[in-house]
């Protein structure tokens, strides 16, 4: 099926640029490989106009009350939920994820709006006891200014919403650049922001595929932009650090992971498998917190493998609009190639294939054109394999067997990134011991889900800087001003 729609290259709320006929962006449906839509390809000039609109709007928006911004966020939350199914259809079409996950992404996105509507009114300053008896010292928190929000394709709406919600709560204005592959749900988000009453110029959406790097560079070097929030790869995150250095922008970076999952002998097998299914197969394995290296203690290995296979066998592979599908396609052919490379590399270095989804090779009549990879379990993961070193971003479950608790700290921490990590045990002491020893920004104990609007999301090491969501999320969007007062007569 061929569908076609257009999104404007810039601003649904700033109105700074009317859509112009230029090279059309092409987004392919990951389930079929067919052209999905076209969208105007924004360029440098559009990025500059969007920044101009955001900069102009900031002059007034920074003076609005926290309560009025909280109301805007609540209104936007309601609109997102009212339009949940329509937005979910767009997410499925552009990203490929299963229907239930797309619905859940809309709820997850809305949860950031609801959360930050509360946080808007809690950006408290402090009063500080001064050493000088004639002094009084207080601090206030003020919005940092124009924010560039660079969002990824794996949770296109939620990641944009997480950034925009914090920005609005703080009183900042934003230029949002969704990933070139997934511009549509974010463009709709911009339209809904306008309907919610967000003032003109406060939320500006700019779309582009081929010009993504150019737009990123424009936003990162423009002195009017004071903060960049990026979710994506560690490689691009490092480039952004260099690009923003000259104008000393504040940066939030939520980058790649290589999550270890540790399953101890004393784990509840069913719970461990439930968690692995969530962390490994959410969005087909395409999240930064996806389980990547499964470390399973010898005594539980057989029971764990049996349960994992049974559960994965029961998960249908298919396009997201088929409501039975539990595992969708990957975003692109390149992604598919990478997962297969990781699988073949592991097999060539001594791992054995324990199971591969029966739909394999995925039957041509149903899957030939989509980016489907058959979910696969391999055992015998070792430190020299690609899947050990880099995140796979796909439905490959690679398992390494270990014997003693003392081994796992070194194994789990054998990476320069540190975003998510998971462990399964019924021993509370062990759970805390190991959680404390793991080099990661987030640890799940007996759960495969780390994502919640109220929980600080972010990593350590080469997984990036800062926390998104939670009571900490607004901090990156404000600057603290100290005010000193002389009260002497
Ligand atoms: C990510 O994959 O970048 C974010 C995942 C999440 O927020 O759950």
UniProtKB/TrEMBL annotation:
* This protein's record includes keyword Oxidoreductase: yes
**In what pathway does it function?**
Amino-acid degradation; 4-aminobutanoate degradation
Q: Which GO terms describe its molecular function?
A: succinate-semialdehyde dehydrogenase (NAD+) activity
Q: Which GO biological process annotations does it have?
A: gamma-aminobutyric acid catabolic process
Ranges of Low complexity compositional bias? 1-19
Top enzyme class, one word, equals: oxidoreductase
Q: Does the keyword Magnesium apply?
A: no
Q: Which residue ranges does the record assign to the Aldehyde dehydrogenase domain? A: 26-483
CDD domains given in the database record: ALDH_F5_SSADH_GabD
Q: What is its EC number?
A: 1.2.1.16
User: Which UniProt keywords are listed?
Assistant: Oxidoreductase
**Chain intervals for the UniProt region annotation (Disordered):** 1-30
Q: Which residues form the active site?
A: 254
Annotated TM spans: none
Cellular component annotations (GO), alphabetically ordered? cytoplasm
Q: Which reaction does it catalyse?
A: succinate semialdehyde + NADP(+) + H2O = succinate + NADPH + 2 H(+); succinate semialdehyde + NAD(+) + H2O = succinate + NADH + 2 H(+)
Please state which protein family the record places this protein in: Belongs to the aldehyde dehydrogenase family.
Name by which UniProt lists this protein = succinate-semialdehyde dehydrogenase [NAD(P)(+)]
State the organism of origin.
Tilletiopsis washingtonensis
């Amino acid at each position: 099926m061929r569908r076609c729609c257009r999104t404007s290259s810039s601003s649904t709320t700033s109105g700074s640029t009317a859509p112009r006929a230029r090279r059309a962006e092409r987004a392919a449906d990951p389930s079929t490989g067919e052209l999905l839509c076209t969208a105007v390809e924004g360029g440098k000039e559009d990025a500059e106009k969007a920044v101009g609109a955001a900069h102009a709007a900031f002059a007034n928006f920074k003076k609005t009350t926290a309560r009025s911004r909280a109301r805007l966020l609540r209104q936007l939350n309601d609109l997102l939920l009212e339009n949940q199914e329509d937005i979910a259809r767009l997410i499925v079409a552009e990203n490929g994820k299963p229907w239930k996950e797309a619905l859940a992404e809309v709820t997850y996105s809305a949860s950031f709006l609801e959360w930050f509507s509360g946080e808007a009114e809690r950006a408290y300053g402090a009063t500080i006891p001064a050493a000088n008896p004639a002094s009084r010292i207080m601090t206030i928190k003020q919005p940092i200014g124009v924010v560039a929000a660079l969002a990824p394709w794996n949770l296109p709406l939620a990641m944009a919403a997480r950034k925009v919600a914090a920005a609005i709560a703080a009183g900042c204005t934003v230029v949002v650049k969704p990933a070139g592959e997934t511009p549509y749900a974010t463009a709709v988000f911009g339209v809904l922001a306008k309907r919610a009453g967000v003032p003109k110029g406060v939320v500006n959406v700019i779309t582009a595929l081929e010009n993504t790097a150019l737009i990123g560079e424009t936003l990162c070097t423009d002195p009017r932009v004071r903060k960049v929030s990026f979710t994506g790869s560690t490689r691009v995150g490092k480039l952004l650090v260099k690009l923003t250095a000259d104008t000393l922008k504040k940066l939030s970076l939520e980058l790649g992971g290589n999550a270890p999952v540790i399953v101890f002998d004393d784990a509840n097998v069913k719970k461990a498998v439930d968690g692995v299914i969530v962390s490994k197969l959410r969005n087909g394995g395409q999240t930064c917190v996806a389980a990547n290296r499964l470390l399973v203690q010898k005594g539980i290995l057989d029971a764990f493998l049996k349960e994992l296979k049974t559960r994965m066998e029961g998960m249908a592979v298919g396009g997201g609009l088929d409501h039975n599908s539990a595992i969708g396609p990957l975003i692109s052919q390149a992604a598919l190639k990478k997962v297969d490379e990781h699988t073949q590399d592991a097999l060539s270095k001594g791992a054995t294939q324990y199971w591969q989804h029966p739909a394999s090779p995925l039957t041509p009549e149903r899957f030939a054109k989509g980016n489907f990879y058959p979910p696969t379990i391999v055992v015998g993961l070792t430190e020299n394999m690609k899947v050990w070193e880099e995140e796979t971003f796909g439905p490959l479950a690679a398992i390494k067997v270990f014997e003693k608790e003392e081994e796992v700290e070194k194994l789990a921490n054998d990476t320069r990134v540190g975003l998510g990590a998971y462990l399964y045990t019924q021993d509370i002491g062990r759970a805390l011991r190991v959680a404390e020893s793991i080099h990661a920004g987030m640890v799940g104990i007996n759960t495969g889900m780390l994502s919640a609007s109220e929980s600080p999301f972010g990593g350590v090491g080469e997984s990036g800087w800062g926390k998104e969501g939670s009571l900490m999320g607004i901090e990156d969007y404000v600057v603290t001003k100290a005010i000193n007062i002389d009260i002497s007569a």
